[in-house]
Amino acid sequence: MQAATETQIRFAELQVRCARRLGELLRDEGHRGGRGSNSHRASSKRGGSSCPLPDWINWSESSRCQRLAAVEVAAFERLLEEARRRSKPITLAAVLRSAEPQRTRPVRTGAPVASDLASVWAAVGRCMQPDLAIGLPARYVHASAHVDLPATKVELAGSVAVNALGSEAQWIARLTSAKASGAMFQAAALICANPADAWFSELDRGAWSCCFLRARGSGAAQVVAYLGPRWGAFHAAMRPLGPLLLLGPLGLAMESSGLRLSDAG
After folding, report:
1. 262 CB-near residues (< 8 Å, 6+ apart)
2. pTM score, two decimals?
């Protein structure tokens, strides 16, 4: 029985080491999976990754392996040693759970709780059908792929949904730039809006559409900001969730002509 247990432990460690090595190779070769199609491995049809994944691995598996490869060597070896000492087989999930920092966000007064945001992301998914979800599970918006924050080097292409709370200035700038370059078709970002912040004026200059989410209490409002040509569909999907505001020249033109956002659904 002892021999069988030792064999199981060694086999589990070998699996984790192989997954880590695979993650290193995928990372070095730039494999990121699809960005503009429903495939988890095909190249994007709207300017996505030019280095698709091999047929024998999907995007989710590639992501886990590359996250494993990002764990520091000392921490990785320490976790394997602890598993051997406890005489328990190590798993990829256990390594990631122990080695990666737990991301927590400050609670904002008057902000919707996580469960309330499910309907918000569902509405975003209906109007956009995102290719990439950043900082939120792909299933929330029916996206083809998911990337954890901070995602500083991820390619922004196709349709992108981002949980930008706490990093609003960075994401508004990145999304605006990606849209201007033509690489990205459309984007939606969850932000905490404060008109006093310097980056807030970028929403007006970039002609973003904004849905101010209804929430109890006081404090800075949470907003879903949309950038792209399908703002009419965005307004129709988000209208039940809060007041809408169309910024930029188009918004001014509609206001001066007496049109309402509800006419643009």
Report:
1. 235, 239
2. 0.54
